[in-house]
Write a structure and sequence with these properties.
Helix 1 packs parallel to helix 8, helix 3 packs antiparallel against helix 4 and helix 3 runs parallel beside helix 6. The chain is 28% helix and 24% strand.
C-alpha cells in the first residue's frame, strides 16, 4: 500500500536536516530518506576533520619560531603520524555522533535508510515501495570528482572521502586542485612532514581573483610547498609509485589527493521523471530565492545545487526549502552575502562582491599589508594583506579579499557589515581595541576612507548624540 505524507526529504545531510527542522514545525506527516553514510559531509569528511588536521599541522609547525622567542628544544619535537591520524578520526567520530544523536538516531518510521527515485513530481519509489508526497525536497549533496582514467591507480589516488581513513602518512603526495580543501589539506600534510606538491590547472588558488591578494597568497604559501599553476595534471605509473606531470614539471609521489571539485548526487534519482529540462549536470532549473523547481511541488537545497557548496549556505537553503515545502505559496528570501574562508595559514577569505564583478570606475579600494601590524608581529604571523572594496561615491561597502591571520573573524565582521548596508564611515565609528588584528582592518578602512568622494563634515570617528 502506498504511503502518503505531506513532505518527503531526500538526503539527511546538512541541507536535509535543516529542511527537516522547518517541516517539523508545521506537520508531523513527513519522511526523511537517505541510503548513504549518515552524519553529514561536513562532520564525516569535510570541514570538521580537516580543521583537526589543520590544527595538528599548525601546532607542530609552530616549533619553527620557538628559537626567536627564547624557547629551546623545538628541534627535538617529532610527530607520531599514526597517533595524529587517530586523533583526527577520534574527533571526527565525536562530530558525527553529535549529528546522529540529534537527528536520525531519534527518528522512528519517519526515517527511511534507503535510496529514492522519482516516479513523478509527487511520487517516489523507495526499495520497491511507493511514497506519495505533497511536496518533495531534494538534498542529496555531492561527491568528489575523480577523472575516470585515474581510478585505475586504485587507493593511490584518493579524495577527502578516504583521506581521513589513512593510518600512515605517505612520504610524498601531489595535491591536484588548489581550491579550499586542496590548499588546506596540502599545507596541513606538508606541516606534518609529507613532501607535498600543489597543482592546479587554473592560474590562481583558493578562488582568489584580486591580483594583489593572489600575489600575497602565492608568495606566502609557495614558501611551504611548490605550487604549480596553469597546467592540467596527468598521472602515470613509475616503479610502483605515481609520476605526476603538469606542463614541463614532474614529480614522483606515493599518493595523489584529488581535490578537483564535486559533482551533484543526482544519479539514480530519475529526475527526468519531473518532466522539466535538465542541464548538462542532470539538474533542473530552480528559483534561487524560493528553491522551487519550476512550478512543481519540488524544492532543491544544499550541495546538490552545484552553486554555493558551503555548510552555512546549505543550512540557509535547507531552511528555505523546508519552510516553503509547508507553505501554500512559496516565499522568496534574500540570499546572504557571499562569505568564503580558507583555513590555511594565513587564512584566505573572500567576502561580498568578487573582484571580477566590481566596476573599476565606481570602486574604491583600501589596502593594508600586515608586516608592521603589532599584534601580528607578536604572534609571528605578520605576513599577508587586507583589501576592502567600497562604492567610491558614498563609501558603501561592497566586498573584500584578504590573506591574513585571524582572517576568519575579519571576514565575518565585513560580511555582517555588507549585509546591513554599512559604509566605511559606519565601521570607522566602531571601537577598535589595541593591540588586535582588527586594527589591520581599521588601517585598510582608513586607506579606503580617503578615496571616497562624499566625505563627512565632522571627524568620522565621532557620532553626535
Amino acid at each position: 500500500m502506498p504511503r502518503h505524507v505531506d513532505v518527503a526529504i531526500i538526503g539527511a545531510g546538512t541541507a536535509g536536516l535543516y529542511a527537516l527542522s522547518q517541516v517539523r514545525k508545521a506537520t508531523d506527516s513527513y519522511v526523511l530518506i537517505d541510503g548513504g553514510e549518515l552524519g553529514t559531509t561536513c562532520a564525516r569528511v569535510g570541514c570538521m576533520p580537516s580543521k583537526v588536521a589543520i590544527q595538528v599541522g599548525e601546532d607542530f609547525h609552530r616549533r619553527n619560531i620557538f628559537d626567536r622567542m627564547g624557547i629551546e628544544g623545538g628541534e627535538a619535537l617529532s610527530l607520531n603520524a599514526r597517533e595524529a591520524l587517530e586523533h583526527i578520526r577520534d574527533l571526527r567520530d565525536v562530530f558525527v555522533d553529535k549529528v546522529l544523536s540529534g537527528s536520525t538516531d531519534d527518528m522512528g518510521e519517519e526515517f527511511i535508510p534507503a535510496h529514492a527515485r522519482f516516479v513523478s513530481p509527487t511520487e517516489l519509489e523507495v526499495d520497491g515501495d511507493r511514497i506519495h508526497a505533497k511536496r518533495i525536497i531534494i538534498a542529496t549533496g555531492s561527491t568528489p570528482v575523480i577523472p575516470g582514467d585515474w581510478k585505475a591507480f586504485g587507493d593511490r589516488v584518493i579524495t577527502t572521502d578516504e583521506l581521513f581513513e589513512l593510518e600512515e602518512l605517505p612520504g610524498a603526495m601531489a595535491v591536484i586542485g588548489l581550491g579550499t580543501i586542496g590548499l588546506e589539506m596540502g599545507q596541513a600534510l606538508s606541516r606534518m612532514g609529507v613532501t607535498v606538491t600543489g597543482i592546479d590547472q587554473l592560474d590562481h588558488i583558493a578562488g582568489l581573483q584580486d591580483p594583489e591578494a593572489q600575489k600575497a597568497a602565492l608568495d606566502i604559501l609557495g614558501k611551504e610547498m611548490p605550487l604549480w599553476l596553469g597546467e592540467g595534471a596527468s598521472i602515470n605509473e613509475q616503479d610502483g609509485r605515481l609520476r605526476v606531470t603538469a606542463g614541463d614539471q614532474s614529480v614522483v609521489v606515493d599518493k595523489v589527493l584529488a581535490s578537483m571539485g564535486r559533482r551533484p548526487n543526482v544519479q539514480g534519482l530519475d529526475l527526468e521523471n519531473l518532466g522539466v529540462p535538465l542541464d548538462e549536470r542532470g539538474l533542473p532549473a530552480f528559483d534561487p530565492h524560493t528553491l522551487q523547481v519550476g512550478d512543481l511541488p519540488v524544492f532543491i537545497a544544499g550541495d546538490v545545487t552545484g552553486d554555493r557548496a558551503i555548510l552555512h549556505e546549505a543550512g540557509w537553503e535547507g531552511r528555505v526549502a523546508g519552510f516553503n515545502a509547508v507553505q501554500d505559496t512559496p516565499v522568496g528570501f534574500r540570499r546572504q552575502v557571499p562569505l568564503a574562508i580558507n583555513f590555511c595559514d594565513p587564512n584566505i577569505a573572500v567576502v561580498g562582491r568578487a573582484w571580477n564583478d566590481l566596476d573599476p570606475d565606481r570602486t574604491a579600494i583600501g589596502e593594508v599589508k600586515l608586516g608592521p601590524l603589532g599584534r601580528a608581529l607578536i604572534m609571528g604571523k605578520n605576513k599577508g594583506i587586507i583589501r576592502v572594496y567600497a562604492d567610491k561615491r558614498d563609501g558603501r561597502l561592497l566586498g573584500a579579499s584578504m590573506v591574513a591571520v585571524k582572517g576568519e573573524h575579519l571576514a565575518h565582521l565585513l560580511a555582517w557589515s555588507i549585509q546591513q548596508g554599512l559604509t566605511v564611515f559606519d565601521l570607522l565609528r566602531m571601537p577598535f581595541y589595541h593591540p588586535s588584528i582588527e586594527e589591520g582592518l581599521q588601517s585598510a578602512l582608513y586607506d579606503l576612507k580617503g578615496k571616497i568622494e562624499q566625505q563627512p563634515a565632522e571627524p568620522v570617528e565621532l557620532q553626535r548624540i
